[in-house]
Structures are given as C-alpha cells and as structure tokens.
Amino acid sequence: MSVTAAKGFTAAGIAAGIKDNGHPDLALVVNNGPRRAAAGVFTANRVKAAPVLWSEQVLKSGRVEAVVLNSGGANACTGPLGFQDTHATAEKAAEELGVSAAEIAVASTGLIGLRLPMDKLLPGVGAAAAALSPHGGEKAAIAIKTTDSVHKTAVAEGDGWTVGGMAKGAGMLAPGLATMLVVLTTDADVEAPGLDKALREATRSTFDRVDSDGCMSTNDTVLLLASGASGVLPGHEEFAETVAKVCDDLAQQLIRDAEGASKDIRIEVVNAASEDDAVEVGRSIARNNLLKCAIHGEDPNWGRVLSAIGTTSAAFEPDALNVAINDVWVCRNGSVGDDRDLVDMRYREVRITADLAAGNASAVVWTNDLTADYVHENSAYSS
Amino acid sequence: MSVTAAKGFTAAGIAAGIKDNGHPDLALVVNNGPRRAAAGVFTANRVKAAPVLWSEQVLKSGRVEAVVLNSGGANACTGPLGFQDTHATAEKAAEELGVSAAEIAVASTGLIGLRLPMDKLLPGVGAAAAALSPHGGEKAAIAIKTTDSVHKTAVAEGDGWTVGGMAKGAGMLAPGLATMLVVLTTDADVEAPGLDKALREATRSTFDRVDSDGCMSTNDTVLLLASGASGVLPGHEEFAETVAKVCDDLAQQLIRDAEGASKDIRIEVVNAASEDDAVEVGRSIARNNLLKCAIHGEDPNWGRVLSAIGTTSAAFEPDALNVAINDVWVCRNGSVGDDRDLVDMRYREVRITADLAAGNASAVVWTNDLTADYVHENSAYSS
Fold it and tell me: What is the ipTM of this complex?
C-alpha cells in the first residue's frame, strides 16, 4: 500500500543502473493534488548530503509536486558538483512532469563520497515517470532499499482519509534521525503548517527515539505530502495521532531490520524529572557498547545500565536507581536486587526499565544489540 | 620497576582468593616517607564504586599512607554494605601498618554488582603487608590485572628523583577516564597541591584522551603519591612533564591492550578554533562505531569521519574539512580528495588527521577498532 494508499498519489520504482547489481534503485512519488502541501524533517548532522541541502530549500515553500529518491549512492561529501547533480535530477523530474524544479524534493542513500552516475540516473527519472501508477507504492519502497533485508511500508486509516508511507533504513539508525529515507503521503486536506506540526510531533517520539548504533547520517529525510484528494480536513489531534501511528510502525520495522542485530532492545526510562532527562538516559543506555554486547550474550548485566545512567546529567540519586530487565528488578536502590537468573533472555525482544525515582516523566528509546555480524557488515560495506 | 622505582615505597602483590582461578588479585603500595603527600583523580561517572567514594574522601587531606587495590570485583553498585567492605579493608590495612584508616586509599576493579569476599580479602591484606618489599612493584602491577593481557608499568627519571607507576585496564577505556586503576609514585619532595596540579595536567592530555569504547567506568582511579625520599624539590614544569611522560607511556600501553582490538587509531584534530573543539571532534570520531568497523576492515572510509565531525558543535564549515588517513588526504574541502587506494592500512597503528580549517588549536585522541573479538569478549565477560 505504501505511498499510494492515500488518494491523489502515483509512484514508481525502477532499476536505473545506479546499483551495479541491477536491483531497483530509483523511485518517484508524485502528488497529483488537488492540494500539494508538504513538510519535511532532515538530519541534524551538520555535514549534509547535497539532496538534503536541496530539499530543505524546496520544503521552505511548503509545496512539493514530487519526490525523486535513489539508492546506490548518497551524494554526500561530493562538493559543488554533487549539488549540481541533485539540481539536474530535480530539473529532469520537473521537465517530465511539467512542473517547476523548485517543487521537486530529492533524497539519496548509499555510500558517501561518490558522485552519482548521472548518465544512468537521468534516463532513469524518465523511465520512472513513464512507469507512474496509483499502484506503484510497493515498487517505490523496494527501489529505495540499500542493506535493508525487506522493504518497509505502513498505512493507517482516518475517517474518510488515509496516511501511508514507505521507509528505508537498516543501519546507522541514530540521534535526531536514523539513516533513513521516509516518504509519507495523505489525502487528508491539511495545509503545510498542519503537516509540519504533525510530522515534528510524530518524528520526535518515533524515528528520533530509534538509536541502533548512535551514528548520525548525512542523508536522513522524512517527508509528508498531502494531496487533499479525500476532501476531508481532520482535526489536528486525530491527524497527528494517525501520522504518529504510521511513523511508529515504520520505526519498529527499521529497528527490527538493523544490520547484524539479534536483539531489539526497548529501553523505558520511568520516574524521570523531565522527558528530556528520560530521553538523555535512554540514549546513554542505548549507546553503551558494553551493555549492547552483554545483551547479545543474553547476560542481564544491570551494572552496565547503571554505568550508562551515571554518565548523564539527568536528575537522580545513585542509591535510588532501580533497573528491571525483562520485568525482573535485578537492581534495587542502586544495588543488587532480584536474582538475575530469573531473567529469561532467549527471545529477540529485550525490555530494560530504568527507574530514576526522580519524578513522573518517561520515554522509550529503542536500540539493538552489538554483534559480530554488525562488525562484519560494517567492515565490509564499501569494499 | 613500577611503583617501587622511586625511593621510599614498598609494595606487594598476592593471590588472596578473590579470583576463583587463583591468580594474583590483591596489591598493596606503601609510602614510607618521609613525606606522605598524595593527589588523586577519579571517574566522572555519577555512579561511583564504594572504593571511589572512600578514596575521594581520603584524598581530601592530601595525605596517603598506603593504597590497597584488588582485582576480581569492582565493589560497585553494592550499596551501604559494599561501602562498609571498603571501610573494613582500609581499617585492616591501617591496623597492619600502624596508621590511620583515614589515610588508606582503596581501589577495586572487576565485575559490578557483586559483594567482595571479605573472608578472603581481609586475610589477604595481612598477607600483602607481610610481603611488602622495595622490589614488589612488579608483583603489585600483576595483581591488579583483570582482562589485561599484560601488566603495565612505566618509569621516568628526573634530576635526582624518579616517577614510576603501574596501570590496569584493557577495556571500557573512555571519557574523563578509562576503566583503569593507576598508581604513580615519586620520591620528589612535592607537597599535595603541586602533585594535584601536575596530575590533573597530565591526565587531561593522556588518560582523558584514550577512548577505547566510549564507556565510562564506575571505578577509575589515578593516584600520585610522593615520598620526598630523594630530598629534591623539582620545579613544577619539570615535575609535571615527567609525570605526564609516565602517564602517556601507561596510556599507550592501555590502548595497545584494549579488549579484542586489532588496530590502534590515533586521531589528530588540527586547525580547530579551540582545544575544546579539537577534543570534542576527536572524541566524536573515536566513538563512531561505523568508522571503527571500517578501520577494522582496513577501509579508509573518510565519509564516516565527516559524518562524525558533523554531529559536533565545533566551529567548522563542511566545505572546508580535510581528512587524511595514514597521511593520504582522502578528503579535501569536504569532498573527494586523493585516491583512497593509496592508503596502506595493513599495520596496527592507523593515523586519522581531521583538519577543521577553523583556527590553530589541536588535540590527539586515541581509540581502537571495533571487532568481532570485542563483541565476543564483552558478551561473555560475566557468564
């Protein structure tokens, strides 16, 4: 269902030859209106890929006609010539669709530091435009895969309107945003400011809290396009909740497909003095390599959780900290709690609960374990 | 030569039975004076082991008679009873040596969250006191090993005085300080404030810049004891340089013995606007798991260096960044530079130079690669 679940959108996914292996590598998503409102959230990395710099400008108008996405190359750290390549991609799509290049967003994913093969990419944009279909969402989702083992799509229904989307990402899931490209579409008749508010609220509690390996990408892009084709303008809260539902679904798919992982780790920080404290502590636990190794070894090593909490500036007293692993409170009052042998860690999902005993706020951060497969995949990636 | 290289010190290292495998696990270092001045630097982790809480208090007086160190258990996250165990350890040593427990520092290393076997440790303190020798430094260094493959000692000579030391640490080398226990001794006749100044200056540019896996320990302790037995009071600069030399030597030994590592990575950040910027960027590169995997795979993946720089708040323009790997400038002006195939990465030491083109400050941070062996060692550690 993907990006064509909502009315008013067509999409395509084709093999343009950007990837040497002949797999699909170019996607096009077109908003056929009547409205063409859009919002976007981008990587917080200060080293931004050319398509991010381009699309940030496009999104300032709150209007997007179409999105061109490619896998097989990130077009990051490619200098002024790389930016020209993104510009040329937008121009080509604009020409095919008979619209302005200033309303074409571009997103890229793949290796950093390599120019894109424009002799293949530009004809690919033409081929994708010719293949556009109201049933093309699935193919578009497939074309943006890199090391993803599966393509990722999600849909949620409102009252007479729909939000759908696709995502790509399988590693480098990190702060701010993960290395992911996400396009969400809706036929709800929402203007750009409403889209922006809903998207920021949704990403803040979903994609922003998926932290597979702590590494922030140069290319993260999350776009939300509205066609208005349903003719329905939902209330903000209802709309925002539905967008968040689709984001949450896609974020869960990302964490489950993280490179080389054998465990999905749900870290819930409770009784924090503030939500910021809860997120800071959650992230610190999520990024602790020693803990991630221990979880891989099915070792309920709560000492490493406390170590990670101790590096934060959150409000807490060391002697008041409690930690549960898979619901067994193995650490109570900063010291040994219930018998660690009671913790059953055979399953893929591991739940860590960190009780800061400092207030009423909470947050959930997801991460993965650290495995020899992760090392292997990321040692061999570019060679 | 270790902690008994300087005059006025005796030491011992024995097997007290704290470790199940019968290896040496208890060390005692005694300052026989005439002066008994001391300074200490401890972990910045807010979750501090009982011996750290104890020794921080002891060091406030600037006077230390002796240090008891044990491997085989960190005595961290052990609550009030764990603190009583540390207190009892100091009392026992004080009784053996005929001094006050308030002048006995204690340091522990090993697993978190387990009480120490005091029925073995306390008799061990007695046995160590009986074994004290002016040639005991080497044995003391051996007794503090945990996963260390070798024991670590260093010595530097001043004009008529000496600084010597021992260190333990092979993983969890991190911010602020690594998981390490370090005892430095000198027969220079320096009072506590002079020791404190020299030690802080030295750790700031040595141990503080060794960041093997980004995980901060609960137990890090670096102590500097002065006996004054040489009768020489060196100038501050000369003394501080010699202390820094011993710290640098030990820090290098720590990084070379990091758990499961196959590469030692020297990250030099140059042309930064400030030293703080240089250190922030160095640490961000040092902690990037994707880069650490790439280096393991002998892949000069400069894109991951730029990605890591981009997550910092340091002053730089993305288009002005330059990166060299083993002296080949593979990234120039934020984009593709010299041929990456020119980079020879077969050797254990890898040098990354990040040029921020923003000023005149610089800093060096050391880290290791991320390997399947690291994952294996840290998955299996407590089981």
Answer: 0.86
